[in-house]
Structure formats: structure tokens, C-alpha cells
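Progress narrative, Year 2. Work on Glutathione S-transferase family protein from Chelativorans intermedius advanced from sequence curation to structure prediction during this period.
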Amino acid sequence: MLTLFHHPLYASCRFVRLAFGEYGEELALIEEHPWAKRREFLALNPAGTIPVLLAEGDHAIVGATVIAEYVDETRGAFQRNRRLMAEDSLARAEIRRLVDWYLVKTEGDVTRHLVRERALKSQMGGEGGGAPNSAAIRAARANVRQHLKYTNWLAATRDWLAGPRLSYADAAAAAALSVLDYLGEIDWAQYPAARDWYSRMKSRPSFRTLLADRVRGLPPASHYADLDF
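Result:
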């Protein structure tokens, strides 16, 4: 079994877990706090970032999109009907664009700030902790609406977010939005197409381990594990 160094509220880590889950493969999970800068972890990834996958032969593969390419080459290419990356080059470009949108732009605009201020600061202590920054929370909450509007448009105009088939784009979006859903930061009633798409994602077997996630001192929103929300 492969091992993933992760944190349950990092969208990039959830993305990797969903990708492996879609191929029916379980991962051994080690929760890593990157702000702690553990010497053993830095030996695997001197940048100190997560996710990090210990692949065959204990080779460390670093970063969500790098891991996704590895998964596609070693799993997806042999399961074409279930492959999370398209065969066509333009379709692949659209999938990669949306993966970047949710794991980089949504992360930078919204997720990183809400997770840090609402969940991580209380755990970080002298390694960057402290009182939540209310201004950062307000700015992130203002940005949530634009990202949900865009997701709602994608879900309303396509079968799946990047086109006719489930892809890495859906995994990336579900990873990011599931973090916000855990925190209770989404009013799904305002975005019916996005809600219906997210309900389909939550119902997939690959999502089960995410719905079981719990963070010490911060329980999920009451509807988080509810498939009919």
C-alpha cells in the first residue's frame, strides 16, 4: 500500500485521495503538519509542503499535480473507461486549466485563508499560530461567491465540469469545495447546479474517506456527511 503524507483540510491532499479512490486504490495516510518542519519529513521533501506520496520503492513524489500525472501514467492509462485524464490534447488542457483553477486560484483566494484562520492557527502555537484574522476571513468569504458562481455555471452547462466525463477537474473542484463544506462556508441553496454536481461527487465511493474526516477541535458542518443535503 502506498503512503500519503497529508492534512485533512488541505484541498491538494484531498485531490490526491480522490484520484486514487477513483481507481479503487487505498492509501495509508499519515497526517503531517507542515508548519512543524519535522526533520524526517524534510528529508522526503526539503520544501516542507504536502501532499507527498511514498510510491513504489519508497520514492517520494511531491505535489498534487505531479502525483496526479504519476497516477495517470501508472493507473489511468490502463483504465481508459475510468481514466481521469482525457485522450485529446485540447480536452487535457481544459482539465489541467480547471485543476489549476481550484488547487491554485481557489486556494489562493479562499480556501487557504479560511483553513488557516479558522482551523490551523489554534494548532500552530509558536509556529505561526495566534488569533484568527477577521479581515482575512471576511475577504475570503467575499471571494467564495465568485468561485461558486463559476462552478455553478460549469455544472449547468456541462455533464461534468471539464466535459462529458468525470475527470481530474471534478476531483480538484470537489477537493476544494469539500473543505469549504466541512467548514460550513457554502450556502448551497444559491447554487443549485453546483449543489447537484457536488451531490453526485459526494455519493461516489472515492468520497467516503473524506466524509469520515474529522479535525480535532473543529467538527464539520451538520450536513457535511449527508448525501441528501
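Residues 89-124 form the longest helix (36 residues). The longest strand covers residues 2-6.
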